[in-house]
Amino acid sequence: MMISIKGIVAFAPNIGVMITKEAYTVDADELKQLVVIAQRHIGDAILEECCCGGRGPLSHWPNWEMDFDLYLDFLAKYEQSTASRRLKKKQ
Hints:
By secondary structure, the protein is of the alpha+beta class.
């Protein structure tokens, strides 16, 4: 599973952070911000499960690449459902 940010930076725990040729279309500050974002999320547990073992909910994703905004939405929904399940178990 590879996560792509604006088609400029892509990342996955088993590959690292990659910068595409489209990086030439943005200024250095924006590129730096995108790389920092990628580095911040490269260790997300849900992504590591998928990339480094083929497990977890992302392992069923039909494409090998996912847009970053879609990834963030997926991550938020997953965290919400996980928190909800934990709360139900406590009750």
